[in-house]
Amino acid sequence: MTPQDWESPETLPAPGSWQGYGSSEQAAAYALRPLSTGEVLDRAFAIYRANFWLFAGLASLTGAFSLILNAIQLVAHHIVLLHHGIRIAAMVTELSSVGMALLVLPVEAVVYAASVYALCELYLGRKTTAKESLQATIGRWLRYCGIAVWLGWSAVWVTLVVVVPGFVLVAMGARAPALLVVGGFVLFIGFVGGIVYGVIAYIRNSLAIPVAVMEQTGVRASMRRSKTLAAGTKGRIFVVLLIAIALYMVAGAIESPMILLIARTPFQEHVIAQSAMLLIGFVARTLVSPVALIGLTLVYFDQRVRMEAFDLVMLLGGSAPPDAAAWAPAPGVETPAAGAEGASGETAEPMGSDGDV
In this structure, how many other beta carbons lie within 10 angstroms of the beta carbon of residue 58? Predict the structure, then answer.
C-alpha cells in the first residue's frame, strides 16, 4: 500500500482554475493519481467519514421519503385487511408498491446526482452544502430518472424475456408433461443466465450518473460513456457494489427475527415489528447508500486519470469553452480519439450529443 498522501487537503499546490464548471483558486483536496482497488476503498471511507453529515443528510432525503410512503402503505394494508381480507389486502399492497417505486424514482435519482456533485466539489477542493448540491442537479431530474430507468432495465430485461415464456410452458405442462420439463429448463436458464448478464450490464452502466453530472451529457451519451470508462475496471466496480450489498445484508440480518415472526403468523397484526423494519430500512439506506456512490464516483475519477490524463488536465489548469462539457479535457491535453484504444485495450466508442433529455 502506498503512503496515504491523499488524506490531507493541502496535498497539491493550487495550479489555477477550471473554467466551464466554475473557477476556484483552491487545489484538488485529494491527489489525482491512479489508485489500486484497496486505495479506492480506503479513500471512499475516508471521504465518507470526513463528510458524514453531508452524504448521510442527502441519503436521508430518499430514506425519509421512502419511509413515509411505506408507512402510508402499511396503514392502508391494515385497513384493507380488516375490511376486505388478506387477498384484497395483498393485491392493494402489490399495486401500491408499483406506485411507490414510481414516486421514489425521481427523488432517488436527484439525490444520487446531488451526492455525486457534492463529492466532485469536495474532491477537487471546493466547499459545498446539501442545499447547493440539490440546486445544482434538480433542474436535470428527468435526465437522471432516464438513466436510472435504463440502468435498472438493463439488469433485468434478459431475465424477463426468458422467464415469462418459461412460466407459460410450465402452465401448459399440465396437459403435456414434456412442456413442463422444457419450461423448467427455460426458467433455470433464465434465472441463472439472466442474473449473470444483469450483473455485468449493471456494472457496465454504473458510471452513467457520475458521467451525466460531471460531463453534462444526455441519457444515451452517458450510458455509452459509462461503458467506455468501465472497460477494464469491472472487477473494481463489482467489489464496490459487493461491499455495499454486504452492508445491506447486515441490516437484513437485524430484520430477520421480525421477518420470521411475521412469516409464522401472517394473518395477525404485527404493527410493532413492521414499524421497526421500516426504521431499520431507513437507517440502512441513509448510512449504506453513500458508500456505493462515493466508491463508484472515485472509480470514475480513476478511469479518467488512467485513460485521459485527467490529473494532468487539473495540474495545467485547463479551460473549456462555455458551451463545452463541464468536465471536458483542457485544450492541449490529448485524449483518446474515437475508436482509439484506451488503457484497457478496448476500443472506445465515439461520444456524441445524441440522447440529450
Answer: 25
Comparing 106 with 267, the larger pLDDT belongs to 106
- Nearest 10 degrees: CA dihedral of 20, 26, 27, 29? -100
C-alpha cell at 239: 467489489
How many angstroms separate the CA atoms of 82 and 91, rounded? 14
Confidence of residue 179 (pLDDT cuts 50, 70, 90): confident
Q: Give the pLDDT score at 29.
A: 65
pLDDT in tens, 201-213: 999 999 999 999 9
Q: Taking residues 312-326, what's their average pLDDT?
A: 50
What whole-number distance in Å separates Cα of residue 236 and Cα of residue 225?
17
Q: Exposed, middle or buried: residue 266 (CB in 10 Å: 0-12, 13-18, 19+)?
A: exposed
CA dist 60 → 57, 174, 250 (Å): 5, 49, 18
Give the C-alpha separation, 44 to 297, whole Å: 9
Rounded to whole angstroms, what are the CA distances from 143 to 26, 54, 270? 30, 23, 40
CA separation for the pair 333, 345 (Å, rounded): 20
Rounded CA-CA distance 338/156 in Å is 30
pTM of the full structure? 0.73
User: What span, in angstroms and rounded, lies between the C-alpha atoms of 299 and 292?
Assistant: 11
Compute the distance between CA of residue 158 and CA of residue 186 in angstroms, rounded to an integer: 12
